[in-house]
Amino acid sequence: MDDEWICGRLGEDEPWMLGAVNPPVFENSLFTFASAGELGEAIKDEDERYVYWRGTNPTVDLAQRKLAALERAERAKCFASGMGAIAATISSLVSAGDHVLVLGAVYGPTTQFLRYLEKFGVTHTHVDDLASGDSAISESTRLLYFESPSYMRYEIFDISAVTAWAAERGLVTVMDNTWSTPIFQKPLTMGVDLVIHSLSKYVGGHSDLVGGVVAGPSRLIRPLALTEYQLYGAAMSPHDAAKVIKGLRTLPVRMPAHQERGLAVARFLDDHPAVRRVNHPGLPSHPGHALAARQMAGFSSVFSLELDTESREEAGAFIDRLRHFRVGVSWGGFESLVNAPALSVEESVRATMGIPVGLVRLSVGLEPADTLIKDLGVALEGVGRLA
């Protein structure tokens, strides 16, 4: 079964669909049963039986089945946000006294959540590579968490090597795959235990929903679904699940278009004298390009550039000169966006991730690449004038 069929048709020909072109949205908060005994049996299996909206729902379940199939996973669980998925997944794998190893730069709120867990006796350590991991690991280390490409810096890790290293040391691996989507990268096929996505980004594709998902084997998803998912209450709504399903229908078409436009913009910036560096793994100049080309089927259009400046003010002025990039967080929609971590990320988190002051993140949307390139060219002319 190929990805395009999964995105467009998987599960959409079943009797409960009643021939509807768009899957029905089940708005009811609960489901009733013919007897008390039947209800009791359903509650025992609430992660798969329809009992109450907080457990699961037919519309949400269809989205979960599609996402699991895309990632080549046994199961998937959708959440009301990406952080809902991250928090529940990490919590399901650690207890008081445990240690988490974080490889490379990861999403800022993920680091903030790990710091939050310190008051419950869960510690963590950030390392840049596996060699450093050997020094940081301890008998209490239970989990290795990472992204590839990494957050903001877009470094590439050899996923098979990371998972083999972790398996030898008895660690569970969790990877955030939001950047690539399952269209361009399938970490579970390279040994990752659990994969996480923010569905708010490319999967939704239209900046009109917030959601998250974790996918992997039933032995890890089922206990998470019965415990953290239920207790944290970050249940995805059926309306958002319907948006996920619609977003998936065009995902295999949108991602190559994002790739084409993103690379065109990145190539322009890579040759510009006001730019020190472009962090896009699709560029041959990227140190991880060859590895990325081997383990990925394509490249998305989110990347960073490092301006030739050490000034926050100058980074902000560059952003303000742009006219076709909207200023905002998130990414993955039609619209092109720009953001600078030094202007918004907590300083200690920025330092932990090794993000330069002049680093600017671009999310290249689906507008004409030539228009975006001209806009960037004009904005870059002002870099250095504040020095």
TrEMBL record:
UniProt keyword Mitochondrion, yes or no: no
Domain of life, per lineage: Bacteria
Names of the cofactor(s): pyridoxal 5'-phosphate
InterPro entries: Cys/Met-Metab_PyrdxlP-dep_enz, PyrdxlP-dep_Trfase, PyrdxlP-dep_Trfase_major, PyrdxlP-dep_Trfase_small
SUPFAM superfamilies: PLP-dependent transferases
CDD domains (UniProt xref): CGS_like (cd00614)
Alphabetical list of Gene3D superfamilies matching this protein: Aspartate Aminotransferase, domain 1, Type I PLP-dependent aspartate aminotransferase-like (Major domain)
Keyword annotations: Pyridoxal phosphate
Family affiliation: Belongs to the trans-sulfuration enzymes family.
PANTHER family the UniProt entry points to: CYSTATHIONINE GAMMA-LYASE, TRANS-SULFURATION ENZYME FAMILY MEMBER
UniProt name for this protein: Cystathionine beta-lyase
Organism (species): Nonomuraea roseoviolacea subsp. carminata
